[in-house]
Amino acid sequence: MLKKPLFLLIMFLSNYLFAQDAQITWHTFPDEKFQVNGLVFWQENKPDLYRLAKSQKNSVRDRVWSLAQSPSGGRIRFQSDCTILAIQLQYPHKGNMINMHVYGQCGVDLYIDNQYIKTAIPRDSTFTEFVFFNNQKKQMRNITLYLPVYSNVKVLAIGTDSEAAFDKPLPFALEKPVVFYGSSITQGGCASRPGMSYQAIIGRNLNIDIVNHGYSGNGMGEPEMAQILADIDAACYVIDFGVNLPSVDSLSKVYGPFMDILCQKRPQTPIIVVTPIFQTHEFWGPAKPTFMRDIVRKEIARLRNIENYNILLVEGFELLGPDMADGLVDGVHPNDLGFQSMAEGLQPYLARMLNLSGNNYKLK
Predict the structure, then answer these.
(1) CB 225 within 8 A of CB 64
(2) Is the pLDDT of residue 57 over 90?
(3) What interhelical angle do 288-306 and 248-265 show, nearest 10?
(4) Residue 140: CB atoms within 10 Å
(5) Which of 226, 240, 262, 285 supports an S-S bond with 258, CB 3.0-4.6 Å?
């Protein structure tokens, strides 16, 4: 078996020679040929791939702003008949998490016509030049690049053959995006790569745009975040926060006011509220998530009693419950199996609220 340094050197040289031999034409990013989706403040932020607008930096806590620089849910989309596809990326680090490997933390996934192909990651340095494919048949393809879940990244250029033609990506089924808010689970921890978060899976199946406002350890329901979400013209909101709050009492103080802001600003917009999914320490008896679920149920019942809001409550155990403990990485965060379960559980509710049909789902 090759030792790791030798293996990495061979991989680097192979990719480098491959790129040289491919005669790549580099298109500096951003470029009007490439459409950015899932990052609603892109026009203000570009070329930076942030989830919050730069003008909002002083409106949120420092940790939230730092996490917002990881473009989870962001995608670069286009159609092309390119025979070569490559990318140049610049990362601040090569991956440093203990419960997510580099593909999950820093990867850029290539999907063609909703089919996964390959993932670019930082290897020898924080600069990466990666060839997704070379010498392929010249035919128009719908191309999607899923951006990193837990790492800032600069897309420097996208490479193709010199004769490549470009077109706009295929349209979504809905004009407006579905906006998700929550914790690290919402952000995508711990998917093996960006295309395997539950929102990404649902997005492909229902052909909808998704916006990810999950903030690891920091989905705390501040009024500032409620206002930021309410300012986004969404097709639907999916709200799944609670477990990041330090106590049940602290959740009870913020949950109602958060929902009030969102509902009052967007009274006609459908909202799906999800109670916390299962955590393995609950095997030993009632724990903090148990009582947090009660608070969520109580607040949604209150809103339904006072106004005719279009709110649907979905129990987290329907998405990932005690019978799906193998779907967790560390007893808390879903792995790919867990995220697939969450997608399959939530997708029918979204489809029903948005009057959509999708692939491989049925109402429970």
Answers:
(1) yes
(2) yes
(3) 30
(4) 12
(5) 226
105 token code pair: 């933390």
Q: What are phi and psi of 127, to 5 degrees?
A: -90, 130
Helix-, strand-, coil-residue percentages of the chain, each rounded to 5? 35, 20, 40
Residue with tokens 């933390």: 105
Distance of alpha carbon 298 from alpha carbon 154, whole angstroms: 43
Question: Where do we find the tokens 């990867």?
Answer: 107
The pair phi, psi for residue 325, each rounded to 5°, is: -60, -30
252 pLDDT above the threshold of 70 = yes
Distance CA 232, CA 134 (A): 39
pLDDT of residue 363: 35
What lies within 8 Å, CB to CB, of 201 at 6+ separation is: 195, 339, 340, 343, 347
Indicate the length of the chain as a whole number: 364
Structure tokens at 89: 């990326």
Contact 109, 142 (CB under 8 A): no
CB 135 within 8 A of CB 86: no
* pLDDT tens readout for residues 66-114: 999 999 999 999 999 999 999 999 999 888 888 888 999 999 999 999 9
Residue 121, token pair as written in the block = 């990651």
pLDDT digits (tens, 9 = 90+) for 159-207: 999 999 999 999 999 999 999 999 999 999 999 999 999 999 999 999 9
CA dist list (Å): 262 to 31, 38, 249, 267, 283: 34, 20, 21, 8, 34
**What is the residue-averaged pLDDT of the chain?**
92
Tell me the Cα Rg of the chain.
Answer: 21
Contacts of 195 (CB under 8 A, 6+ apart): 109, 111, 116, 146, 201, 204
Tell me how crowded residue 171 is: count the other CB atoms within 10 A of its CB.
Answer: 9
Our CA dihedral for 153, 157, 158, 160, rounded to 10 degrees, sits at -160
Rounded CA-CA distance 311/259 in Å is 10
**CA 290/CA 110 separation, integer angstroms:** 39
CA-based nearest residue to 229, from 243, 174, 221, 65: 221
94-98, 146-150, 314-318, 350-354: which has the minimum mean pLDDT? 94-98
Question: Would you say 177 and 40 are in contact if contact means Cβ atoms under 8 Å apart?
Answer: yes
